[in-house]
Amino acid sequence: MNFTLKHTDPGSKARAGLLKTAHGTIETPIFMPVGTVASVKGVHQRELRDEIDPDIILGNTYHLYLRPGTEILKSAGGLHKFMGWDRPILTDSGGYQVYSLSGRRKIKEEGVKFKSHIDGSLHEFTPESVVDLQREIGADIIMAFDECTPYPCEYDYARRSMHLTHRWLDRCIKHFEESEPLYGYQQLFFPIVQGSVYTDLRKQSAEYIAGTDAVGNAIGGLSVGEPAEEMYEMAEAVCDILPTGKPRYLMGVGTPINILENIALGVDMFDCVMPTRNARNGMLFTSEGTINIKNKKWEDDFSPLDPMGHTFVDQEYSKAYLRHLFAANEYLGKQIATIHNLGFYLWLVRESRRRILDGSFRPWKDQMVKQMDKRL
Amino acid sequence: MNFTLKHTDPGSKARAGLLKTAHGTIETPIFMPVGTVASVKGVHQRELRDEIDPDIILGNTYHLYLRPGTEILKSAGGLHKFMGWDRPILTDSGGYQVYSLSGRRKIKEEGVKFKSHIDGSLHEFTPESVVDLQREIGADIIMAFDECTPYPCEYDYARRSMHLTHRWLDRCIKHFEESEPLYGYQQLFFPIVQGSVYTDLRKQSAEYIAGTDAVGNAIGGLSVGEPAEEMYEMAEAVCDILPTGKPRYLMGVGTPINILENIALGVDMFDCVMPTRNARNGMLFTSEGTINIKNKKWEDDFSPLDPMGHTFVDQEYSKAYLRHLFAANEYLGKQIATIHNLGFYLWLVRESRRRILDGSFRPWKDQMVKQMDKRL
C-alpha cells in the first residue's frame, strides 16, 4: 500500500495521510506548486526546496512534450535530473491543456489532434501516447488521459464525454500495465473522475474510477468557472464514493478558501496556478486576507511583507519595497510575491494537517475561511 | 584618509587598495553590480550578498528620483533601508541617463531640463539638486553632475562641455560642503573627468579634477561607442595624472577584458550593466570565453553551467536546462544567467586583487585576456 490514512478529523471529513512515492513520502493534505515547463516560474529550485518546502510539485505533460521535448528529457534521465529536483513530481496528462486549445483541437475516439500554441504544428495525444510521455518524463505520479468538460456543459455532452473518458481510462490502464518505467523507479497511476456538475454523472464516474482499484484517484473538470458551491457539492459526492484508503486529488483547485473547504470534504491533494499567477499580478494571499500590493496605500508602509509569513521574503522585504518593484515593473517583485504566495499555500496545508492530527481542524478552518475572505 | 593603497603590481599599473565608507570597507579593484531602481534585476538581496558578494552596488539617481521618488526614500530612512541592503551604495548623478534622453532634454548653464521616459512629465536637474537627491537617497558615494559627451564628438563641443562639467563640479562641491548627510553617516563625493577621446582635454580635465582634492575620482564619458584602444589610451592618460592615493572609478565599463585592461592601467572601481543585461539575453561570461546559451549546441549538454563558476547556479543547473529555460522564455533563465555573470565579474576583480597582492597580476591578466576572447 502506498497510502496510509493517519487520522480523520472529528468535525469534518478532513484526513491526514502519507503517500509513498519513489522520490519520497508526501504528507497529505498537500498543495503541489505548478512547474509548467520544468520551472516554477521565477523560483530557484533551492528556494522551492528550502523556503517553500513542498513534498511534491507538478509538471505539465503538454508543455514538456513541446519544450524541451521528451527526447531531451530521456537523454537527461528524466525530468527530476533535467531540472535538478529530487522530490516527487506529478504530471497531468495533457488533457486539460489540449481541451483549453479550443478551436485548435479535434477530439475523436482514438485521441485528440491539436495544434501547438507555439508554432501551430500538428500533434496527436492518445491514451497510450500520454502514458508513454509520462513514462519518459519520469513522473512519480502519472495521470490518466481525460476530457475536461467546460462550464456550463449540456448534460448530454457531459454524459458522452464521461463515457469517452472512461474508455480512454481503460486504454491508459492497459498501456500502463503493459509498459515499464524507464528510469528504474516505480510510477503510480491515478484515474480521473469527470461528469461536469451533474451529481448522477459524478457518482457514476466515481464508481467507475473506484472500480479500477488505482493507488490514488483524481477529480477533474472542476474549478472551470462553476460557482464554489457546485464545486463543493461535486467534490463531496465524489469523495463519499472514492475509497477511503486511497488519496484523493482535486485537480486545479483553487483559492485558499477552496482548499480548506475541500480538505474538509475529504480531499488530500491540490494543485493550482493561482498562487503563482496571481503573485505575478501583485496579489498576495495571507492568513488575514488578500493584498493587492500595487495599491497606493502600501507606498509608504515599511512594515515587513507578512509578519506571520513563513519564507525569507516575508521578513526581508517591506510592503513599500514590493509595491515599488511592481510600480517600476521590476521582475524581482514577481519573484518575491511568488515565494510569498507559495509559502502561504504550503503553510496552509501543513497547518491543516497539524490541526487534523490534533483534532482542531474544523473550528480553525471555519475561522480561517472568514479571515481569508477579507481584502486588506 | 578613506583610501589606503596596499600594493601596486610590479608588471603593470594595477593597484590593490581599501576604501572605507560608512557602510563598510571596499576592497579594490571592485566591480559594482547595477541596481538601477533599487533592485539588481532578478536577484534577491540575499543572493546578491551571499552568492555574488560585492562590497558595493550602484543605484541610478535618475531612476530612483522618478520611482519610488526621494520622498518615499526619505520616509524609509534612505535607500539602504528601503531595499534591505546594508553594504555600501554608490549613486551616479543622473547625468548619464539625462544625456541618454536625447530629444527629450535641454542642457543649459543652470542645469538640464528633461522629460521623464515614463510619463513625459517635465523635470530639471541642477548640480545642486542632484547633490540634494543623493543626500536623500543616502548613498555612501555621491557623484558630481556632469555632461557625458557622445561618441563621436567634435573637439569644440567636447571642450566646451568639459568646461561646463567643471563649472558644474564647482557648484556641486560648494553645495556638497554646505549641506549635511540626512541619516547620520558620512557620504563621500567623487568628481568626474570628461574630455571625450581628446588626450589634451582629458589631461586638462584630470588636472582640474585632481585639483579638487576629492576622496576619490571618476572617469566618465568612455565606453560610449569608441574603440577599446581609445578607451585605454584615455584611461591611461587620466590615471597618470589623478592622485595615486585616491581611488579611480571608470564609469560604465565594461567587458571582462575591458576591466582587466583598465585595472592594469590603474583603475580601481567599475560598474556596468553588461553582466546583467547580457545575461537576460542569454550571454554568459566565463573564464574560458563567452557562451550564447540560446544556441542549439547546448540542448543536450547536461554538464554544470560553469564547473569553474563561483555561485550556486553554476553547480546546480546544467547548460541544457538553462538553454531550455531561454527557449521556453522562462524568467528563471534570466535569473540564473544574471547570478552567473555577476558571480563571474566579482570573481574576476577579487582574483585580480589577489594577483596584484602576490605580484602575479600581469602574466595572469595577459593569459585571461586571450582566453576570454573566445566564443564557446
TrEMBL record, chains A, B:
Pathway: tRNA modification; tRNA-queuosine biosynthesis. The keyword Glycoprotein does not apply. Residues 252-258, 276-280 are annotated as: RNA binding. InterPro entries: ArchSynthase1/Queuine_TRR, TGT, TGT-like_sf, tRNA_ribo_trans-like. The active site is at 92 (proton acceptor), 271 (nucleophile). It catalyses: 7-aminomethyl-7-carbaguanine + guanosine(34) in tRNA = 7-aminomethyl-7-carbaguanosine(34) in tRNA + guanine. The keyword tRNA processing applies. Its EC number is 2.4.2.29. GO terms for cellular component: cytosol. GO terms for biological process: tRNA queuosine(34) biosynthetic process. GO terms for molecular function: tRNA-guanosine(34) queuine transglycosylase activity. Substrate binds at residues 92-96, 146, 194, 221. Keywords: Glycosyltransferase, Queuosine biosynthesis, Transferase, tRNA processing. It is an enzyme of class 2 (transferase). Residues 13-373 form the tRNA-guanine(15) transglycosylase-like domain. Pfam families: TGT. Catalyzes the base-exchange of a guanine (G) residue with the queuine precursor 7-aminomethyl-7-deazaguanine (PreQ1) at position 34 (anticodon wobble position) in tRNAs with GU(N) anticodons (tRNA-Asp, -Asn, -His and -Tyr). Catalysis occurs through a double-displacement mechanism. The nucleophile active site attacks the C1' of nucleotide 34 to detach the guanine base from the RNA, forming a covalent enzyme-RNA intermediate. The proton acceptor active site deprotonates the incoming PreQ1, allowing a nucleophilic attack on the C1' of the ribose to form the product. Belongs to the queuine tRNA-ribosyltransferase family. PANTHER family: QUEUINE TRNA-RIBOSYLTRANSFERASE. Homodimer. Within each dimer, one monomer is responsible for RNA recognition and catalysis, while the other monomer binds to the replacement base PreQ1. This is Queuine tRNA-ribosyltransferase. The gene is tgt.
